Amino acid sequence: MAVRARSHAGSLIRASHGLNPGGRGSSVDRRQGAGRFAELPSREGTTEMKPELTKELIAVAEAVADAARPATLAAFRSPSLAVESKTDGFDPVTEADRNAENAMRAVLAELRPDDGIVGEEFGSGEGTSGLRWILDPIDGTRGFVSGTPTWGVLIALADADGPKIGIIDQPYIGERFVGAPGRAEMVGPRGAAPLRVSCVRELSKATIFTTFPEVGTASEAAAFHDVAGRCRLTRYGMDCYAYALLAAGCVDLVIEAGLQAYDIAAPIAVVEAAGGVVTDWEGGPAHGGGRAVAASTRELHAAALGVIGSALRVAAPQDG
User: Fold this and answer.
1) pLDDT at 89
2) What are the respective helix, strand and coil percentages of the chain, to the nearest 5?
3) Which CATH architecture has domain 2-194?
């Protein structure tokens, strides 16, 4: 599967964008790839990407998403799907998770050998380009094993400042949400459409999402429900798809806790490209994981942070 994915992705990118992937055994190509980044102005691990390079990297990200589709769809709603748990509780993982990440990594090994990779299933590897791919082959495995089409494949490209390019891909529905400098677009069964967040500024008019009703700790749950109680509508259980809906202007607010970097990196890029705001619960960067607040407008974001802060201050003496 990985070999087929590598070959297909390489052909796709070369045909569409004229890229030389610098594959195995081509030291000249690899040096040229690294040199392109060396020529770019950078500071403290950040990489400023020119429009041409950004376009090429989006194409690579889409090839990575393409490679994951057959690996996930082959197992989705399959009666023979075997489910394991990563922990003594129920933290499901399947062969589809592993097969998809292997296929994704195969594409990057051919097309971007100098970049680092962080993946949910197979850990991290350092690169030399200053860029790192952050992969979640199936975000929402609980939904995947339950047959609900709300899981997604997450791909992000980041530097030290955070995500620059992000894709939320839903293979079963055939929807892809792309966020990058100069591009915020959804492609689905109805064709392509621009992504743009809603204009909602007040909690009383907002639709809010989170994945689990319990959210995280007791104090985190209390903070979320304090915000949700002020919103027009509260919904649960969408995993990464909630962020896609936020970027598309369908919902207005997503609040979560207990995230890993691979859960949130791609959604950050997609939501921000669509005009939204994503931070942690204190208003700082969220790309490292933990707690996240994603909002359609700065006013709505500020209102949510205000309620969260008050709720956490009340809960702090009880937690202590």
Assistant:
1) 73
2) 40, 25, 35
3) 2-Layer Sandwich (3.30)
Residue 39 CA to residue 31 CA, distance in Å, equals: 12
How far is residue 256 CA from its own chain's centroid? Answer: 14
Which amino acid is it at 227?
V
Residue among 167, 145, 142, 143 at smallest CA distance from 244: 167
Beta strands 132-139 and 191-194, pairing class = unpaired
pLDDT tens readout for residues 230-242? 999 999 999 999 9
8 Å CB contact between 158 and 148? no
Residues of the chain with CATH 3.40.190.80: 203-319
Query: For the domain 203-319, what is the CATH code?
Result: 3.40.190.80
Tokens at 302, concatenated: 């500020």
The C-alpha atoms of residue 280 and residue 224 are separated, in whole angstroms, by 13
Residue 229's DSSP bridge partners are: none
Per-residue pLDDT of 48-82, as tens digits, reads 678 999 999 999 999 999 999 999 999 999 998 89
Report the run of H or E that residue 163 belongs to, with start and end. strand 162-170
- Cite the residue boundaries of each domain of the chain with CATH code 3.30.540.10: 2-194
Give the integer Cα–Cα distance in Å for 181 and 286.
Answer: 19
Packing angle between helix 51-73 and helix 2-17, nearest 10 degrees? 150
The pTM for the full model equals 0.84
- Sort 234 into a burial class: Cβ within 10 Å, 0-12 / 13-18 / 19+: middle
Q: Contact at 8 Å (CB) between 94 and 75?
A: yes
Strand partners for 270: none
